[in-house]
Amino acid sequence: xxxxxxxxxxxxxxxxxxxxxxxxxxxxxxxxxxxxxxxxxxxxxxxxxxxxxxxxxxxxxxxxxxxxxxxxxxxxxxxxxxxxxxxxxxxxxxxxxxxxxxxxxxxxxxxxxxxxxxxxxxxxxxxxxxxxxxxxxxxxxxxxxxxxxxxxxxxxxxxxxxxxxxxxxxxxxxxxxxxxxxxxxxxxxxxxxxxxxxxxxxxxxxxxxxxxxxxxxxxxxxxxxxxxxxxxxxxxxxxxxxxxxxxxxxxxxxxxxxxxxxxxxxxxxxxxxxxxxxxxxxxxxxxxxxxxxxxxxxxxxxxxxxxxxxxxxxxxx
Length: 317
Ligand code: GUN
Description:
By secondary structure, the chain is of the alpha/beta class. Helices cover about 45% and strands about 15% of the residues. The chain folds into two domains: about 40-125, 3-Layer(aba) Sandwich (Rossmann fold), CATH 3.40.50.10860; about 150-295, NAD(P)-binding Rossmann-like Domain (Rossmann fold), CATH 3.40.50.
């Protein structure tokens, strides 16, 4: 029998979020074009950004560019870091009232001085393309129609379009945020998966995560999910978007693929890495989303889809 040498060790297949995102965007562009031709309607997205967090600026830029490339109308409202809650509420009131605005997104995180709950509750639930308004959160929990947050909706689309069977599957989500963990649990539950949510207070994390057929990491901690956390052959979705600046860290985390990451660190000061330890998990998982190119593009694609949906629902089309 042939023995495998180091370089021939089995590696997880890539779960190509970027490819599925392109597919979704093509569908949205087609529908947007039909909507313009048949009803003269051009869906509009308004993105509000407060302060000068560089990561938020990059994400918002990508949302605006993608909207334009798919034929949607978009606008960015950039407010200073000193903006008060009341001023932001006024901006939202104006956007709620404007006919041309179908979708409103307030990029998070907001500066600490701003009352985030008040802001999210002020958005018209019919224009809430992020699905963060309590009415939409409730609709999702009750299995009713509403808007589903973009990252969980994208992960769900990826699993379904890649033929992953959810009914009866054991899904474990690490992270209980309102943006990813909680809404994703609702979506997977709705699809008849057996769902467990782990978090920072979970004891014996690996004991729980190792039971999962589908493991989703959404905590924002570099390399938290190691080989020991993964059931052999499991599907692993890495939602983390962390900046890695250390070359030694890159060597440890990326193993024989570290060279290209080190080059990125030298050129740009950091490389993007998820919550999964890639070198270890690649050897155990069956399929794994890359970072970058996994969940990130899906989030943007689903925002486009939600904006199109908002434009149609508002006009009862
Ligand atoms: N910050 C990180 N992810 C998101 C998202 O999906 N929506 C908004 N508004 N802010 C975010």
